[in-house]
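Morning!

This is the sequence you dropped in the shared folder:
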Amino acid sequence: MPKTILLLAVVALFTAALLATPVADELHRLNNLETRWQGPPILVGFPEYEKGSDDDEAGDEWNDEWNDEGDDEGDDDDEADDEGSDEGDDCPPYPAPVPKTGQTIPHGFLGAGDDGLYQYGVAVDPRFTDNGDGTVVDNLTGLIWLKNAWCFGSDLWHGALHRADDLADGTCGLTDGSTAGDWRLPNIRELSSLVDYGHSWPALPPEHPFTNVQLWPYWSSTTFDVSARSKLYVNLRHGTIGYADQDGFLRVWPVRGGQ
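The structure's back. C-alpha cells below.
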C-alpha cells in the first residue's frame, strides 16, 4: 500500500510539472506574428537553462534589449506619423482627380460594390457650357471643343492632324477669334474624357450641347505603342477605346486649351 501511494504521488508531481511548464512550441503558438511590439519572438530550438544561471541573465538582457529597441523604434514611428500628418496639412490637392464614369446603376452580384454603387470620382454641374461661338467648354477638364462634331467628315490619321491644326475662326461655324494652330487633334485621354459610361448612342453625358455626333470611332492623336502605324480611337457608340491603322478613315473632332 505505501508503495502504491508513493507511486501515485510521483505520478501526480510529474503531471503537475508537465501542465505548469509550457514547451517552446506552445509558447510559439501564443506569439502574434502580426503584432511586432507585444514581445520578443518565441524561438524554437534554443537550449534550456536553469533559473538563476548565466543563461537566465543573458535571456533577461536579451528581452530588455528587445523591448527597449521596440520602444525606441515605436517612438520613431510615432514621430514619423506626426511629421506625415503635418506635411499632409500643407499638401495641395492632387492636380488631376479622377472624374466619375457616369454609371449610376449597381450591377454587383448580391450587393457587391461596383462602380454604379460607389460612383467615386469628381463631377461638375453643369458639365458643359455652350459659348455661342461654335465652341463648347468642358467645365470638368477646361478643354474647349468644336461644337460641330462632324465638320470634317472622315479622314486618314495624318489628314486629321492637319485638318485640326488648320481650323480657325470663320470655318465650321466658329466666331471665336481662333487662328490656325490654336486647335489640335485630342490625345486619347482628352477624347475619352468626354465619355459617359452610363449612356450609349452616343456615350456622352445626356445634357451635352454638341451637334452631329457620330456613332463611330473618332481619331485621337495618340499612337498605339505596339505599332507606330496604329493609332488609338474612341468609338462614341459605346465609349470603347480601340486602335486602327493610320490609313483608315475615321472621324475628326478638334480641341483646344488644356495643360
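Headline: Helices lie at 2-20, 24-30, 54-90, 115-118, 157-166, 188-192.

More detail when I'm at my desk.
O.
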